[in-house]
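INFO worker-7 received task bundle
INFO bundle size: 2
INFO processing item 0
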Amino acid sequence: MRFFKKKSVSPVIPQETSNQIILEEHGSRPISAHTRVSHQIVDVPAGEHVKFSKLLSCCQRCFTKENLKEQALLIGTISAVVLGIGIGIALRTLKCPKNERVDGCRITKEDITYIDFPGLIFVNILKMLILPLIVSSIISSLAQLDGQSAGKMGIRALVYYLGTTLLAAILGIILVLTIRPGTRGGAVEINPNSKAAEGRTIDTVLDLFRNLFPENIVEATFRSAGTDLKVNRTFYFDANEKNKSYNITIYTPVVVKRDGINVLGLLLFCIIFGILISRLKEKAIILKHFFEAMLEVVMQLVRIAMLYSPIGVFFLIVAKMLEMDDLGDFVGSLGLYMATVLAGLFIHGFIVLPLLLFVITRINSFKYIRGMSQALVTAFGTGSSSATLPVTYRCVEEKNHIDPRVSRFVLPVGATVNMDGTALYEAVAAIYIAQLNGIPLNAVKIIVTSLTSTLASIGAASIPQAGLVTMVIVLNALGLPPEEVRTIYAVDWLLDRFRTAINVFGDSIGCAIVQHLSRKELSVLDEEIVAATVNTNHSATVLPVLVSDDADYNSSKPDGNVIDPANHKLFSSTTV
């Protein structure tokens, strides 16, 4: 019965520094529930029951209503992925080989579109939030930074993105040269319905600059520029030169407008807009408050949208499993190719990136990955890093406690230019296609593969299966026929989901690393905010008072005093 005896306790009053209070009032950092002012007396058990008390308080914090909701949502989304794969495979026995219900089949192509419909609604909801989220997050974050701090932060982010993307491409090349999936597992049957895209490196580079500087910023919110390459291949026979024949290929590039947000143009415009708001200070304070309030509203919409995520992800996975032509695509040579890509993504995502995180920041990598679980599952379900961006914001800021001034600037840039998984996939796919066709690659071509896949992944739009388009650029750089991209078409949809998850995780790791490297600049900004707020709170309010040298004080007057306006002096009266 010793456990139930009265414990000796000591009263402790939690306190808070003035700097924390000022920062919370200013709103530069998210306010935590543990930093609020509390004047209640907390009983701290003494003696042998201290450990039990700490364990009890820890359990109370873990099993709060909000934490239970978050865990339920995460468990529901993961369960939706598992159930979607299982039910999708089970329903394939009812799938009709043609678009007719014969021989006992029940599910036609039209039925698959109905199954996919709830998932498309979920993707549309997330895409609807991309535009206000990018605009408000970048402008509000840069408005709180000075130009020098923003420049240093941007350089660090770009160096990290290019470095990790190049590392991913090199890792993929090492694996595909070691495993050699193209020389094992037999021939690959090409899907007759697949089409090869046409593309050139110069057109991709020009499209990047066209989208960086859009002619209409309003049009950039729903349309981007792109090159539609028309190819005319003709066979020419010259009878005058000893019956020589030539194959002539004529490329005709046509610049067209494509539906979709021009993220690059919006990024550049919002970055400059936010820096100018920071420089104008008080003159643009209304704009600063407007975009901060807009971001808070958008984040509330994201929380509401995430309640629908288990349902949307479930139907997306079921529909994709039913759309597959043949499960036999996952065996043989293509199966080895898939295993090579997945092994590279696993090593890069769960060994290389966490190791970088720990070495640079000393953050617990497992805890950080757990905080990003919801975003990773959503990325796998949607196959789009842009559509996952609202969820990534929420996980990075609320669960991993990254400074919003960093995350709101780094994440939109990362969703556009940081494509670790895509670079690895393109490097593996290019060498795999060369192995299938028996084309040897020397050291120079392998180096070209790593550099080209890195640059092509940056140009890849953050939409599902955009890597197939940029894949043509890598094949052209190696002298391989672009139509060979059809070889990997059958399994690309599944690999696309895995590499999208790695892209999103790489963006989140970049936030933590950039925050750690920018901690000095952020602390200086915090000190400036504290100093400005202290001076404002403790400065005296000066009120002007008119006092006359020859004032006549007459109590019979209604006001009790008379001030001669012709001869008066200006003094100051200080009121506290």
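INFO item 0 finished
INFO processing item 1
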Amino acid sequence: MGVIGRICLFASLVGVLTASPVQVPLQDPGSQDASVLQHLERKRTLQGRFLHITDFHPDQFYEVYSSTTDDYACHGGEGPAGIYGAETSDCDSPISLINKTMDWIGKELRDKVDFVIWTGDSARHDNDEGIPRTEKQVVGLNQLMVDKMFETFGKHNGDEGDENPNNDYVVPIVPSLGNNDILPHNIFRKGPDKWTRTYGKLWKSFIPEEQKHQFEQGGWFYVEVIPNKLAVFSLNTLYFFTSNAAADGCAIHSEPGYRQMEWLRIQLQFMRDRGMKAMLTGHVPPTRESSKTSWDETCWQKYTLWLRQYRDVIVSTHYGHFNYDHFILQDFKHIDKETRHGRMPEHETESTEDDLHAAVSANYFLELRDGWSRLPHPPKSMRWITQLEQDIAELYESEHPYLHLKAVLMDIFKSKKKKKKQKKQKRNRKEREYLKEMGGEFAERFAASFVSASVVPNLYPTLRVFEYNITGLDEHSSHHGIVPPRVSPFDEDSDVDVERSKRQKKNKFTVPKSPSKSAPPGPAYSPQTLSLVRFTQYLANLTRINNDFESLSSSSVKQSDELNSAKWKPGKHDGKPLPDKDYQPSPKKFKYEVHYDTKHDDVYRLKDLTMPNIVDLARRIGSFEGKAAVEAEADPQGCEIESAGDLVEVEKKKKHKKKHKKKKKKQKRQDEAWYTFVRRAYVETLDPKELEEEFGS
């Protein structure tokens, strides 16, 4: 691109960044009269947003000012458990937190989202031997959450008892089964069974009538949240889960994991044939690091193959379970050759899950960073646009933006002239090699999974609102109950047949067709209708809201436990002096506040959530070098000038020092992406010392 072109692009980017947002904030419903609200209820306009919320873990036995240690789990004793939860501990959520969260959602988001993704774990953990969980409790807590969803998103028009249970909510709600929504936790057997029947009844308003039979087979279904345009799939990830001893992966035909993958393949093809797009959701994310492997390898292999083959259909994937805010990449190069050809050898996958909690160690994030450090890097000829974006970011941070703009423009004018034809051909060859490594300009070698942090305050309570492109979707029609293709029910295989199947070294399966060569890249890869634009992360700062310990001096605060220590975490307030015996809670106003949004954030700066931008963020996070790497290239020491040769040497050292200073500034900016990623993963609960000690090397 020529100099003039680069200047024009720079100016246009500055204009975009300084312009008003395209989406105008919605009008407060309280300011509208009843007739207008009734009209809105009859015909709801798409807002281009959806809510992802996960891991409530309500606990009816939670006691305020109880002990957060593992002996009590906030069920007794005396301790720092606050009125809305014991943040950073392993205690579950008090009902007060559930009520306040749903009240806030009802007030702030009810009329601003098009659908809700609710990815499981709506019962407390089995973390107190004195109060073991029962089926009645597990079902009762899930019923509580269904009731809360109805209070928040229900129509309340009096027709809840009619013959159509799918017409009771103002927006579609798509729930998923979590590993703590069953008893015993983690163990989910082949359906139909009592749990699929129980949740089939409990979620009757969420599961489309034509899919209830399929749900009873194994707890999976989908909802056309925008009829004939977009479907959200609820996967039963417990059949993929390494901690589920009742399931054995996705290779053997008699296994429920295999059946679910077949169902998913058939339905995604159904979406493609109808010109629809799909989002995949579930509870347990498909992590595949040595410190945290959550899915059986055979399930990961098939799932990732499906993502590759249906990349023209799948918009995005969303999970919960871990309580940490982050994302992961699926690299299609890791799909085995045999898997690509429809043969699935059995794999041994060792579970790395905690018996009760989904906590991860610092090693998990370090392994993510290490993997991302090996992502392909664009050649210098393709990096100028990244440098331009960094210049724009610095422009807004500068005390003298116009002088900074002038300096940037001067740098562009001073840039070297175009190289000769031979060097240009070499540059183009490097660009082609890079694009081949990336799967083309749209990074079609990868897929991404968004993993949201939780409501349960193991860190701070969080929730997430995505924005997506609704161009051309203003008018959407009803699908009139289109019946999806069915997968045959589980066969009652004899023991001999099962044993014969297990002895097979290679289990054959149907490989889905790739997108047509003439098909454009899907919405996960190129900005278009239904592509994700950004997400806004919200958190509730319980330390401030509970208002119990903010006034304590730092000298009285016990240092929090190491990130990789005991399984049970008593939280950052453990050991602090208790309030007086007659002390009554005096919380501040409960609210969720914006933590960050991916588009306007100073560090992430994502134009949208398509794959090239996600991979670029991962690459920046993986570019961390830390202090040691920067200090290794120490500044040259000065020396006395005794000759003309010494003078030349001093000048060289000055230039080296200037270059080193510039490199150090650039590396500091790159390191900031890593530190920001980790801080947000832990929802700002790490102090700077912990952050540096655990993640600074």
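INFO item 1 finished
INFO post-check item 1: The CA atoms of residues 241 and 295 lie 5 Å apart.
INFO post-check item 1: The two ends are 38 Å apart (CA to CA).
INFO worker-7 idle
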